[in-house]
Design goal:
Helix content: 10-25%
Number of helices: 5
CATH topology: Aminopeptidase
Distance between the termini: 32 Å
Largest sheet: 8 strands, mixed
Number of strands: 8
CATH architecture: 3-Layer(aba) Sandwich
Shape: globular
Strand content: 25-35%
Radius of gyration: 17 Å
Oligomer: single chain
Number of domains: 1
Length: about 180
């Protein structure tokens, strides 16, 4: 229907479905280059899972991930709408209302300001995927990420011994969960 199309030459504003919470929007295909850049920086990916650490992450691979229905990649932004970092829900199980969460801050110099924990809190309070439980993990040496998850309302629920390798050394993987109220 032609009446539903925007006039030619006009940029359509983001759909409300793209704005998931204050300062958080769904990552789009146009964000793939920025995200791929973040995912190729060892200072940023040092504590992510092994498939993301040191990987040759290309914009094409990010675009493929953004199209997956079992994942939701979001960007959290500053007041000027500049992306600061990524929050990804993956392994989304719509039947059991469960997902795993991982995240990164795209500018390490902005660490320790509460930006990531605040974004996690906003996204999970909005609960756009109608989840009951969100899980996450950190390597034991990553105390900053542990504090971030705790500030966002997660609880540590367990530990897997020696399940995270960084700098050639084995460390424990600490498991976290947050119970949500589907909106």
């Amino acid at each position: 229907m032609a009446a539903d199309r925007p006039p030619r030459g006009r940029v359509t504003p983001p759909q409300t479905a793209d704005l998931l919470a204050p300062g958080i929007r769904r990552a789009g295909i146009d964000d793939a280059e920025l995200i791929a850049n973040w995912l190729t920086q060892p200072a940023i990916t040092r504590h992510l899972s092994s498939n993301l650490r040191g990987a040759d992450m290309t914009p094409a691979l990010v675009r493929a991930a953004l199209r997956r229905r079992d994942q939701l990649w979001t960007l959290f932004m500053d007041r000027a709408k500049k992306p600061l970092g990524l929050i990804a829900l993956d392994q989304i199980d719509a039947v059991d209302s469960l997902a795993n969460l991982w995240y990164l801050l795209g500018t390490p110099a902005l660490a320790r300001q509460g930006l990531t924990s605040n974004a996690l809190r906003h996204l999970l309070n909005a609960n756009p995927m109608q989840l009951a439980t969100v899980t996450a993990w950190t390597g034991a040496p990553n105390q900053a990420s542990q504090r971030c998850l705790l500030k966002a309302g997660f609880q540590q629920i367990g530990r897997i011994t020696g399940a995270f390798v960084i700098d050639g050394r084995r460390h424990d993987r600490l498991l976290f969960e947050k119970l949500l109220q589907p909106a």
